[in-house]
Design a protein that fits this description.
Elements lengths: L5 E6 L6 H11 L4 E4 L1 H7 L18 E5 L7 E5 L1 H19 L3 E5 L5 H17 L3 E8 L2 H9 L8 H4 L11 E4 L5 H16 L4
Parallel strand pairs: 1-5, 1-6, 2-5, 6-7
Antiparallel strand pairs: 3-4
Helix pairs in contact: 1-7, 3-4
InterPro entries: P-loop_NTPase
Protein name: AAA family ATPase
Organism: Catenulispora pinistramenti
Length: about 200
Protein backbone atom coordinates (compact mmCIF):
# COMPACT_ATOMS: atom_id res chain seq x y z
CA UNK A 1 0.00 0.00 0.00
CA UNK A 2 1.38 3.42 -0.95
CA UNK A 3 1.83 5.78 1.98
CA UNK A 4 0.04 9.11 2.03
CA UNK A 5 2.35 11.99 1.00
CA UNK A 6 4.45 13.65 3.68
CA UNK A 7 4.16 17.33 4.56
CA UNK A 8 6.92 18.80 6.73
CA UNK A 9 6.08 22.31 7.96
CA UNK A 10 9.14 24.26 9.13
CA UNK A 11 8.47 27.24 11.37
CA UNK A 12 10.63 29.83 13.13
CA UNK A 13 12.01 33.34 12.59
CA UNK A 14 13.88 34.54 9.53
CA UNK A 15 17.53 33.35 9.45
CA UNK A 16 16.89 30.48 11.89
CA UNK A 17 17.91 27.92 9.23
CA UNK A 18 14.62 26.76 7.70
CA UNK A 19 15.74 26.88 4.06
CA UNK A 20 18.98 25.03 4.75
CA UNK A 21 17.05 22.38 6.64
CA UNK A 22 14.40 22.15 3.90
CA UNK A 23 17.11 21.35 1.35
CA UNK A 24 18.65 18.74 3.66
CA UNK A 25 15.26 17.04 4.16
CA UNK A 26 14.67 16.99 0.40
CA UNK A 27 18.07 15.36 -0.17
CA UNK A 28 17.60 12.83 2.62
CA UNK A 29 14.03 11.69 2.08
CA UNK A 30 13.31 8.68 -0.12
CA UNK A 31 10.22 10.29 -1.65
CA UNK A 32 10.09 13.50 -3.73
CA UNK A 33 9.18 16.52 -1.59
CA UNK A 34 8.40 19.80 -3.32
CA UNK A 35 9.66 22.88 -1.48
CA UNK A 36 7.13 25.65 -1.14
CA UNK A 37 6.81 28.36 1.48
CA UNK A 38 6.58 32.04 2.11
CA UNK A 39 9.87 32.93 0.36
CA UNK A 40 8.76 31.10 -2.78
CA UNK A 41 5.46 32.97 -2.56
CA UNK A 42 7.21 36.33 -2.17
CA UNK A 43 9.18 35.64 -5.36
CA UNK A 44 5.86 35.27 -7.21
CA UNK A 45 4.40 38.55 -5.96
CA UNK A 46 3.98 41.23 -8.69
CA UNK A 47 6.43 44.06 -8.14
CA UNK A 48 3.79 46.70 -7.56
CA UNK A 49 2.51 44.73 -4.54
CA UNK A 50 5.97 44.02 -3.12
CA UNK A 51 7.48 45.68 -0.08
CA UNK A 52 10.97 45.85 -1.51
CA UNK A 53 10.02 47.81 -4.65
CA UNK A 54 10.47 51.56 -4.36
CA UNK A 55 7.22 53.52 -4.77
CA UNK A 56 5.24 50.37 -5.51
CA UNK A 57 1.79 51.76 -6.22
CA UNK A 58 -0.15 48.85 -4.66
CA UNK A 59 2.16 48.24 -1.71
CA UNK A 60 -0.49 49.15 0.86
CA UNK A 61 -2.67 46.38 -0.57
CA UNK A 62 0.24 43.95 -0.63
CA UNK A 63 3.37 43.44 1.42
CA UNK A 64 5.21 46.34 3.05
CA UNK A 65 8.09 46.64 5.50
CA UNK A 66 7.31 48.66 8.63
CA UNK A 67 9.74 49.86 11.31
CA UNK A 68 9.31 48.39 14.80
CA UNK A 69 9.25 51.41 17.09
CA UNK A 70 10.60 49.76 20.23
CA UNK A 71 13.39 47.89 18.38
CA UNK A 72 15.72 50.27 16.48
CA UNK A 73 16.82 48.75 13.17
CA UNK A 74 14.15 46.06 13.29
CA UNK A 75 11.35 45.76 10.76
CA UNK A 76 8.20 43.72 10.32
CA UNK A 77 6.13 42.77 7.28
CA UNK A 78 2.66 44.27 7.12
CA UNK A 79 0.15 42.23 5.10
CA UNK A 80 -2.52 44.21 3.26
CA UNK A 81 -5.76 42.63 1.97
CA UNK A 82 -4.23 41.44 -1.30
CA UNK A 83 -1.26 40.03 0.60
CA UNK A 84 -3.59 38.06 2.86
CA UNK A 85 -5.37 36.66 -0.19
CA UNK A 86 -2.02 35.52 -1.59
CA UNK A 87 -1.06 33.91 1.72
CA UNK A 88 -4.32 31.98 1.84
CA UNK A 89 -3.69 30.94 -1.77
CA UNK A 90 -0.32 29.55 -0.67
CA UNK A 91 -2.15 27.37 1.87
CA UNK A 92 -4.53 26.14 -0.81
CA UNK A 93 -1.58 25.34 -3.09
CA UNK A 94 0.15 23.30 -0.37
CA UNK A 95 -3.02 21.27 0.20
CA UNK A 96 -3.50 20.81 -3.55
CA UNK A 97 0.03 19.43 -3.94
CA UNK A 98 -0.59 16.94 -1.16
CA UNK A 99 -4.00 16.00 -2.59
CA UNK A 100 -2.27 15.19 -5.87
CA UNK A 101 -0.11 12.66 -4.04
CA UNK A 102 3.14 14.65 -3.91
CA UNK A 103 4.87 15.52 -0.63
CA UNK A 104 5.82 19.05 0.40
CA UNK A 105 8.35 20.78 2.62
CA UNK A 106 6.76 24.04 3.75
CA UNK A 107 9.76 26.33 4.05
CA UNK A 108 8.33 28.93 6.42
CA UNK A 109 5.07 30.76 6.95
CA UNK A 110 4.22 34.42 7.42
CA UNK A 111 3.78 35.72 10.95
CA UNK A 112 0.05 36.04 10.37
CA UNK A 113 -1.90 34.00 12.97
CA UNK A 114 -5.17 33.62 11.05
CA UNK A 115 -3.36 32.40 7.92
CA UNK A 116 -1.24 29.96 9.92
CA UNK A 117 -4.31 28.65 11.77
CA UNK A 118 -5.97 28.11 8.39
CA UNK A 119 -3.09 25.98 7.11
CA UNK A 120 -2.93 23.95 10.30
CA UNK A 121 -6.69 23.31 10.19
CA UNK A 122 -6.43 22.16 6.55
CA UNK A 123 -3.50 19.88 7.35
CA UNK A 124 -5.17 18.47 10.46
CA UNK A 125 -8.13 17.46 8.31
CA UNK A 126 -5.83 15.69 5.88
CA UNK A 127 -4.06 13.92 8.74
CA UNK A 128 -7.38 12.87 10.30
CA UNK A 129 -8.61 11.60 6.94
CA UNK A 130 -5.36 9.70 6.37
CA UNK A 131 -4.65 11.55 3.12
CA UNK A 132 -1.35 13.08 4.30
CA UNK A 133 1.31 12.54 6.93
CA UNK A 134 1.90 15.87 8.67
CA UNK A 135 5.01 16.84 10.64
CA UNK A 136 5.28 20.35 12.10
CA UNK A 137 8.85 21.24 13.13
CA UNK A 138 9.67 24.42 15.01
CA UNK A 139 13.24 25.75 14.96
CA UNK A 140 14.16 27.92 17.94
CA UNK A 141 17.32 29.91 18.66
CA UNK A 142 18.56 32.37 21.27
CA UNK A 143 18.60 36.05 20.28
CA UNK A 144 22.41 36.37 20.34
CA UNK A 145 22.97 33.56 17.86
CA UNK A 146 19.99 34.65 15.78
CA UNK A 147 21.50 38.13 15.47
CA UNK A 148 24.75 36.57 14.22
CA UNK A 149 22.89 34.41 11.69
CA UNK A 150 20.89 37.43 10.60
CA UNK A 151 24.07 39.36 9.79
CA UNK A 152 25.13 36.49 7.49
CA UNK A 153 21.67 35.95 5.99
CA UNK A 154 21.36 36.30 2.21
CA UNK A 155 18.67 38.99 2.42
CA UNK A 156 18.90 40.79 5.76
CA UNK A 157 15.88 42.99 6.29
CA UNK A 158 15.83 43.47 10.06
CA UNK A 159 13.06 40.90 10.55
CA UNK A 160 14.69 38.18 12.62
CA UNK A 161 14.89 39.53 16.15
CA UNK A 162 11.42 41.05 16.07
CA UNK A 163 9.97 37.78 14.78
CA UNK A 164 11.68 36.00 17.67
CA UNK A 165 9.51 38.01 20.08
CA UNK A 166 6.21 37.09 18.38
CA UNK A 167 3.89 34.18 19.26
CA UNK A 168 5.00 30.94 17.66
CA UNK A 169 3.58 30.17 14.22
CA UNK A 170 2.39 26.69 15.19
CA UNK A 171 0.39 26.17 18.39
CA UNK A 172 1.29 22.48 18.82
CA UNK A 173 4.42 21.55 16.85
CA UNK A 174 5.29 17.87 16.66
CA UNK A 175 8.98 18.60 17.23
CA UNK A 176 10.81 21.63 18.66
CA UNK A 177 14.55 21.85 17.97
CA UNK A 178 16.59 24.35 19.95
CA UNK A 179 19.31 25.12 17.42
CA UNK A 180 21.47 27.40 19.58
CA UNK A 181 25.03 26.06 19.43
CA UNK A 182 24.22 23.52 16.71
CA UNK A 183 25.56 23.47 13.17
CA UNK A 184 23.20 23.19 10.23
CA UNK A 185 24.36 19.60 9.72
CA UNK A 186 23.61 18.74 13.34
CA UNK A 187 20.12 20.22 13.08
CA UNK A 188 19.51 18.22 9.89
CA UNK A 189 20.67 15.01 11.60
CA UNK A 190 18.24 15.57 14.49
CA UNK A 191 15.26 16.38 12.28
CA UNK A 192 15.89 13.79 9.56
CA UNK A 193 16.48 11.08 12.17
CA UNK A 194 13.21 11.97 13.88
CA UNK A 195 11.31 12.06 10.58
CA UNK A 196 12.74 8.68 9.64
CA UNK A 197 11.57 7.19 12.92
CA UNK A 198 8.12 8.78 12.99
CA UNK A 199 7.04 9.18 9.36
CA UNK A 200 9.03 6.97 7.02
CA UNK A 201 7.00 4.81 4.69
CA UNK A 202 8.10 1.59 3.02
CA UNK A 203 11.48 1.83 1.29
Amino acid sequence: MTEAPLCVVLTGPSAVGKSTLAEAIQEYWEEPLLRFGVDELYRMVPGQWAGGVKNARHASQGFTYQNVEHMPGARRIDNGPDALAMLYAMNAAIVAMLASGVGVVVDGQAFEPAVNDDLQARLRRMRDEGTARIAVVELAVADEQLADRHRRHAHPTGLSLHQNTLPKQAKDPDLVVETTGLTAAEVADVVCGWLDKEYAGPR
